[in-house]
Design a protein that fits this description.
The structure is a homotetramer of 169-residue chains. Chain A is of the alpha/beta class and 169 residues long. Helices cover 37% and strands 19% of the residues of chain A. Chain A is built from six helices and seven strands; from the N terminus they run E-H-E-H-E-E-H-E-H-E-H-E-H. In chain A, strands 4-3-2-1-5-6-7 form a seven-stranded parallel beta sheet, with helices on both faces. In chain A, 63% of the residues are buried. At the A-B interface, helix 3, helix 4 and helix 5 of A face helix 3, helix 4 and helix 5 of B.
Chain lengths: 169, 169, 169, 169
């Protein structure tokens, strides 16, 4: 499966958040999945580093003429702005894991939801990821259309258990 | 100016919400602006009807092979899915007015914000529009990047006053 | 119907070619059709002028941040480069009329053909339009897949007769 | 570098053409380049097989819900139709090698040319590739805008020599 990880591109210090990102990337690769992400810094760089350390394949869907981070197996240049690239990234994911993040991450979450991509929100990571864990409709949907279930995980291991339970059509 | 109006496509009964939509469409046209919207039902049909009644131009940005509502001057077929069409619609708006709505509307709000399009949230219209009025950063931003101001209006007249104050670059 | 007209954006002198373009735009509008084009100069400006003189609606599908010509009813900003905009324009045409042109016009011709949009090549207008009139497979196709018929016309009137014979599905 | 190879998706018999395709794919990988193509059958399958046999990385840019061929390292689902995917593929190529092909290949050739991607036409492979070798402006351009040089090669080795001479900006 291709698993997308989304989150803020801002620089990540050595921190619990950085460790979580690296661990998630590592687990995705160890489970034999391909990591897909926006290919730049912050959360994306940390998960890419983790996946590369596990010998996995990392695809960066770059917007415009962005330079990819050092851990990408392949950078795909999408040729348009980040908002559109975000939506297209969802065509290439069997599930998405969301970590912190600002409006770009929120856009990606709604794009994933509207395309019925299973979503895992990493609890305690702040930003729009955390904000979206509140007030879910029936505790698991972004709206009354109940398009696809949104799950909440606290650790990389818990996120991977959810990933492994996904039945790809 | 081209003004985008976004909101839920579900059927609107005769209601205060329907009247608000028609009035907003009417005012947009009366002020000499072009109305841009998703071109289908619900909020979009009501604002289109209002703008047409005022003799205005209404552009519907249709996704896939959707059929436009009866009040469009022109339907532009975007040829791809609604999520992408939503983002593209924002290239064609000097401001966006948001009324109620579900995840599709939330996606459009974040797409507008990320493109620095001034946003007006219609207070009291429910759904994601209303939800986004809560917890704004500094009372006016969707995130700490403070990309563009988000304003809140209660009436069509108040929304138009905000529109008229916008300086197009 | 929406009728696309394609051709070179380079400046057109007062000439038979300019007159042909204006006449084609005029006829499209007089027959009650909407003119769709790339919205900029040269062939596009001349057909837009013709259509506007006949009181018609002219849609310009602009790429990037291009400025539209003076005869557009509406400019739609596509937000990406000309090659992609060209392909999208074909989602909005029931037929395409091709006049002279360089590689951009050739790209549009193949995009139209691949989408089964009936094509009319204006004979004697030079460039890729004229080049495509040679060596048509069975005298009317761009390749052995025989996707849609390509017709050749010498005058605006002849082009309009072909347009009027098109059965929109 | 990422090298795109384009051509007809129709089934290829065991033939000199099939051998040429496999050889080109093989050489691209042996020279350390990544092969990018449309990911489906015919020419694309044969070059993918060649590159995989050489241990290379093969990216297939799939349109819609196409199934990729058996030799792809990664299939990127573009989520829209083949014409658009073709144009996007060119954002991911430092050069393009063209082999035979019909209108889809012609569209890709013009998209590459308009984006200034160096083009190598494989002589004697028929279809639009061969047709484009005729009547080049100044013997090397698709039009008077002289956007990027078009080269003609007869063998995989000759194509690779041209590839190796390309200076990536």
């Amino acid at each position: 499966m291709k698993i997308a990880v989304i989150g803020h591109s801002g620089h990540l210090e050595k921190s619990a958040l950085n460790d979580l990102c690296e661990n998630i990337g590592y687990q995705i690769a160890k489970h034999g999945h391909v990591l897909v992400n926006g290919g730049t810094g912050g959360v994306m760089e940390a998960v890419s580093r983790g996946a590369k350390n596990a010998g996995g394949i990392v695809i960066g869907m770059l917007s415009g003429h962005e330079k990819g981070n050092d851990y990408l197996t392949i950078g795909i240049e999408m040729g348009f702005d980040a908002s559109i690239s975000s939506v297209f990234m969802m065509y290439n994911a069997s599930a998405v894991i969301s970590i912190g993040g600002r409006s770009g991450t929120a856009l990606e979450l709604f794009a994933a939801y509207l395309k019925k991509i299973p979503i895992i929100l990493m609890d305690g990571t702040g930003g729009w990821t955390e904000r979206m864990t509140k007030d879910l409709v029936d505790g698991k949907y972004f709206d009354e259309n109940r398009i696809v279930e949104v799950r909440i995980a606290k650790t990389a291991e818990e996120a991977m258990r959810i990933i492994e339970s996904i039945q790809v059509p």
